[in-house]
Amino acid sequence: MNKRCMICGEEFDARRHDAKVCGDTCRTIKKKQDRKKHHESPIGREKYRLMLERRRVLPRSVRCVICGKSFLANHAMVKCCSDSCRSEKDKRYYHSDERKAWRKQYLQRHDVRLMNNERRRKRRHIPEVRERELEYKRQRRSDPKLAQLDRERTAELARNRKASAQFFRAQAMVGAVTEATKEPTPC
Questions:
Q1: Residue 186's pLDDT band (cuts 50, 70, 90)
Q2: How many other CB atoms are found less than 10 A from the CB of residue 25?
Q3: Strand-pair category, 11-13 with 60-63
Q4: 5 FRET partner, CA 20 to 30 A, in 16, 53, 129, 150?
Q5: Using only C-alpha atoms, what is the Rg of the chain?
Q6: Cα distance between residue 88 and residue 90, in whole Å
Q7: Which residues of 168-181 are buried (b: 16+ CB within 10 A; e: fewer)?
Q8: Closest of 71, 58, 16, 26 to residue 171, by C-alpha
Q9: Cβ neighbourhood burial of 7 (10 Å; 0-12, 13-18, 19+)
Q10: pLDDT tens, residue by residue, 38-89
Q11: φ/ψ (deg, to 5) at 12
Q12: pTM, entire model
């Protein structure tokens, strides 16, 4: 079923009866437009205001983990009363055994990942592995169904690249228009 994309205007083969856009790029643009329309509506603005109110934390009394002084915290993650106490806490954590153990585990995991990637890279240069990969590609090209799938995938990638280029051109034009229509601010 052929339909026309409501963002870029190109025709596309719709897999669903309610499809409105041709690909990922246009879908992203449409979501941004819908979100902007929602936030500009009175109901959307009110919902956003209520969400911010729910997130707001009332000031609460907290004891500093370094000096023990009691202070009012406006955020749930605050643990220190001042910048000097915060830097002291960071120094203590940096030199702590807990951090050193975590860092050691992290480096061990990371080294294993690097070694696995290096093994994969080296395997590609082994003649038998390289020959198997080339044989697989030859089979894909010789099989008409697989070749058609590859051609369709290539065409879709080209369409997505074209749509993304159109998107960025449109964004640049929108930015230029909004800059041109801005009212100068009085000094």
A1: low
A2: 21
A3: unpaired
A4: 150
A5: 28
A6: 5
A7: eeeeeeeeeeeeee
A8: 26
A9: buried
A10: 777 888 888 878 877 777 767 888 999 999 999 988 777 888 999 999 999 9
A11: -145, 160
A12: 0.31
